[in-house]
Each structure stands twice: as C-alpha cells, then as structure tokens.
Amino acid sequence: MATQFDADVIVIGSGALGNNAATELARQGKSVIILEAGERIPRWKIVENFRTSARKTDFNAPYPDQPWAPTTHQENYLENVGEFDLLPGMLKLVGGTTWHWAAATWRYIPNDMKLRTLYGVGRDWPIEYEELEPYYVRAEKAMGVSGSDTDDQSGNNEQPWPPRSEPYPVPPEAESYYYQRLKSRIGAEGYHFIHEPNARTNVPWDGRPACSGNNNCMPVCPIGAMYSGDVHARHAEHAGAKLLTDATAYHLEKGDGGKIAAVHYRSSNGDDTRLTAKAFIVAAHGLETPKLLLMSDVANSSDQVGRNLMDHTGMGLQFLADEPLWPGRGQVQQGGIFNWRDGEFRREHSAIKHALTNMVPNSKVTQRLLDNLVVGPELDARIRHDSARFVDVSTVFEMLPHAHNTVRPSRKHKDALGIPTLTVDYTVDDYVKAAGHVAKQDFANFVRIMNGTVIEDDTGWQNRDHLMGTVIMGDAAENSVVNGECRTWDHDNLFLATTGVIPASGVINPTLTGVALSIRIADILAKEI
C-alpha cells in the first residue's frame, strides 16, 4: 500500500528563498505546503506603521514582533556571549526580511568561489560558477534585477565580469546627482565605481510598478517597486501551493533509511500539528535554520551545524563634503567602490566593499546639531546646509568561516511557544581587522578628495545582516552540512534553502545567490519526486 503524504514538499519559511523554491515546484505540478511562523501583513499597513512610528531608524519597528514570532530585535530573542554583539534585523512574516532590504543583488565572481585554492584562506565552494550561472539568470528574472552589463564587478577595470549568458532583465537606472559627483571626484583618483545590481525595478515588472524614487526602500517600499519575498508567496499560492501562517516549525522527525519523515509545528494558541512529505526544504534564515536542525538532532554528523557563522561585519564613515550633493533622492543605494574585491591581497586581508548610502540624512544631521547646542534660525540654516553635503559610506568586509563563531538554541530563554531562542558567539577575526586598517586609509582619502569635514570615521565594527556559513556547504560529509545541491549529507530528502549554506562570504549581498540556489533545489527535487 502506497504511503500517503500531506504534500510532496514542505517548505519551512516564506521568505524570498523559500517562496521561490515553492513557486518553481508548484509550477512543475508538485503539491507544496509552506509554513510561516509569522503572519501576512498588507503593504499599506506596514507603510502606515512606519509613518506613525517614533523609531524611524529602527527598520524592524513597522513590522509585527509577536511573542510567538519575534524579530531579532525582541528582548532575549538573541543573546550574545562573544566579543561582538551580532544583532541582525531579521523578520518573521510572509515575505521575510526582504521587506526591508536595499535590494542589492550581486553575483559572486568565480574567484570568490575558489578562495582556498587561489589565496590559501577560507573554504572553496564545492560547485563551479558555471554550474550556478543559469540559476543566477533565472533568479534575476524572477526578481526583476536591473544592472549594468558593461561593468567589471571584480573592480579590476577589465572586461565585463562575471561571465553572463544573458543580459540583466532590467537596464540600470540613471545615476543620481549624489553618485555622479562622488564618482567624478573620487573616481578621478583611481577608485573604481561599480553600478549596484538591484531588485528595485525601474520599469514595470511582474506586476510591480517602476521605482518612483521614494527613497524609502528601508524599512519598506511604499509602492512595491522593490522586490520582496511576498511576491513569490502570491506566485506560489497561484500555482497551487498552500501557505500556512502562525505555524512555527520546532521539530524535524527522523524516519526510516535516514530520511526526514515529518515536521512538527506549533500555533500561537499552543496547538501542535504533524505534517508528512516526500521531501523537506528548510528556508529559514541563517540563525533559525541551524537552531531547528540542532533542536531536532538532524543533519549534524559533521558537528558543523550552527558553526562558521559569518556576517559582512563592517564599519562606516560620515562626513560633510565641500559642495552640495543632495543625498536622499532616488534609491537608497546605487553603487559601490570596488578596488578591494579581488586580488592577491586576499592572502593577507579580507576583501572590502565601500557602499554609498543615499538615505535622507536630515534626522542624523539635526540630532548632531542639537547635541552641539545649535538652535533657532541657525539650526534651520545648518540643517539645510549640512544635509545637502552629507556623505555616508557603509563598508563591509569578507569574513572567513570559523568553527568557534556559533549560533545555538538558548539554554536560558524560550519564546512564548516554549521554543528556545538564540545564543550567538561571534568574534571578528584578524583577517577582517587587517582590512580595517586599509579601509580607514580609504576613508581618509575620501575625506581629503571631497575637502570634507569628518563627522564619524571610527564607528567600530557594525552589523550588516548577511548571515552565512551556519549550515555550510562542502565537498565532504565530514566537514560540512550540505553538498553542492544544498542537500544535507545525512538525510537525502532534506534540503536547506538559506544563505547559511554559503561557504565563502566575499563582500557582496548574498540574497540573489540564495534565490539562485533555491531555484536549483526545486529543479533537483522536481526530478526526484
């Protein structure tokens, strides 16, 4: 008698990665159930929450923070015990954290994927760039990515790179005046400005309108021009997938033959449900995915689950230029400076990316002036003057995977469902610290070139919300959690659709790569079930 399953595939997590995998599977005729711990919130409600929030700089503030579905900013949800306080801004709702990202959608370059072979540090990917490239194309089309087909994204000013089999689906937007002036002056002294590919469409795409320059990508695009994971929640449902909200997965049940037999989830009223499937995809973020595996005692024969935690730990620079640049018009990020993305220096220090932040600076400017007791008519004049000249550089560094950088289920705290929260032990390594000195030399050059007045050039290490490594990909079951297919070594029907599989962080935002890998998972599963 044939075994009856609740679905062909159960996807745990309704962010961009899980929903893209679910959409592809449903479109290929597979029955799919998506589990989401949070709830579904309409865009208008999030926009209104932001308008009425007193915490404008907290990008999590407009979003639900339920006791049973907490964001990473909820007290006791994330306990840090290491040298650095890792505090990413992750969300739990339909669509996930891409509701409040800047939509940067870079590809890794081939050298990023062979770091150990080429430079003797870190780890190599177990797959080649050429294997992932067709899925990058599909991910870019799914998300409506705009980009330049002529840039060398390695920063070496050679041929267009990395290799592409198809052009970007959406052309790059026009350069903002802010970006033009910085590129003209700083670029003249040998700094390579590269357009940032992004999933903020500037033409109508997949039912989304063109960007109208609200400059509100974070915490929420008010019109939906910027891609967010709820797009593919709708696509998955339209293709036949079933989306269950208020459904927190807390246990993966092992069955015969090393397979996962079922997932158990709990609702906010304490009801527990068991669901079976032929295959399972865990598509939570890079902290929640290893937590679920560790609580379930699965996929960890290598003892690598929850280890190798990497963020693009960064630092920042803020200064006033000697001319009006008018930041805050258009998209919040448009490009970066890529002199340190790839080269022999990676043997000695991490890669570096300087991103040009283009958010409205008035609140930061005003607070600084008030702190310096500037008031009255002078305050009004200075706000206008300083806001027009404000430059904000957000720098990120390439972290290496270290077994001692960990995330674990908490032994001290539980959420409202009785499920453990998170404990993180994270240290910034010497590889990054060596690059920090190089970045500060660049900071000094940027200020000098723009004849600037420094506001802040020693921020210390900063969070960047790019969680990688915690369920690391590799070429052997002894040293990794998943293989090159994102299939767990220990359970051939358990796949992990999360940036947590990424074994070499580079300096580029990992979301596009995560979506590409998720689409690839769907293709693999569609052939097997």
Task: Identify low-pLDDT runs.
Answer: none
CATH superfamily: FAD/NAD(P)-binding domain
Mean pLDDT: 97
> Any idea what the shape is?
globular
CATH class: Alpha Beta
Count of discrete structural domains:
1
Number of helices: 11
Largest sheet features: 7 strands, mixed
Helix content: 25-40%
Could you tell me how far the N terminus lies from the C terminus, measured between alpha carbons in angstroms?
18 Å
- CATH topology name, in short, is FAD/NAD(P)-binding domain
> Strand fraction band?
15-25%
Secondary-structure-based class equals alpha/beta
Describe the model.
- This protein has helices spanning 16-27, 43-52, 115-119, 129-143, 177-187, 230-238, 288-296, 362-371, 376-389, 430-449, 511-528, and strands at residues 7-12, 32-35, 78-80, 193-195, 242-244, 248-254, 260-266, 272-282, 314-320, 333-340, 352-357, 390-397, 406-414, 420-425, 453-456, 494-496.
- Strand 6 and strand 7 form a beta hairpin.
- Helices cover 25% and strands 18% of the residues.
- The relative contact order is 0.19.
- It has eleven helices and 16 strands.
- Strands 1, 2, 5, 6, 7, 8 and 16 form a seven-stranded mixed β-sheet that branches. A six-stranded antiparallel β-sheet has the order 4-10-11-12-9-15. The protein has a three-stranded mixed β-sheet with strand order 3-14-13, covered by helices on one side.
- The protein has a single domain (7-52, 59-64, 86-528), classed as FAD/NAD(P)-binding domain (3-Layer(bba) Sandwich), CATH 3.50.50.
- The longest helix is centred in the C-terminal third of the chain and has 20 residues, at 430-449.
- It has 529 residues and is of the alpha/beta class.
